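Hi R.,

Here's the chain you asked about this morning:
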Amino acid sequence: MSITGRLDRAFAQAPVLPFNKCTRYALISDCHRGIGTSSDNFLKNQHLYYAALEHYYRSGFTYIELGDGEELWENRKLRNITEIHDDIYCMFSRFEEQGRLYLLYGNHNIVRRKNPGFLESLILHSESLPEKSLYLTHGHQASLLNSTLWPLARFLVRYIWSPLENLGFLDPTSAAKNYEVKEKCEERLRGWAEERRRILITGHTHRPVLPQEPSCYYNTGSCVHPRCITCIEIERGELTLVKWTMNARPDSILYVAREIVSGPVKLL
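And here is the predicted structure, written out as tokens:
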């Protein structure tokens, strides 16, 4: 099946949420929560992520995770991840109690598609301007290896590329680590959005994308950047790309800062 077929199928039965000037959504992708070892890429930014979650919870945002929340290619047991990052899953429970939590799966946690409540895609529908509705998914559908052939990709990561990365080698098949693969993946996703006349928001490549002018393709970035996490906020009918990072006051006291990277881009 082609990328067009895979994305069409993903959105064919996608749940629909409202998108208007009163709705608030925080879109975060690619946390890759691990088991607390040196290969757990989420560890270095876990405090930034938790601070962001607290902010979005207090501010009335609905939290939408666009896949790869857990790193289940390198790690076998979800329980080990939830025990290490229990504070995060407690926050999820608080969001869920208020009906403000939606979790999508990506290629690295695709095994969770069998869990109740996990989605492949989601549509934020605008009644006033249907052409401005937002189509959300992880973005791994752009790659045959990461979608249809994911068991093979998982095997390669778990037994070959993960050990080699500890020696300094990068996975040449990864859209997050290989520039050419990243470019091709984003080109395919953008091509689908242009062909279908949709506004598509994904993760997967770890590269944040939010042009100042309205576009058909946006990307949240990831939570495993070297010194920050990035996400897209949707509020007042506008998209804003923000990053959460450590900053210091004049008295050298550290704090978690929210900074606007791009936007807001007005859609409604």
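One quick note: The longest strand covers residues 254-266.

Cheers,
M.
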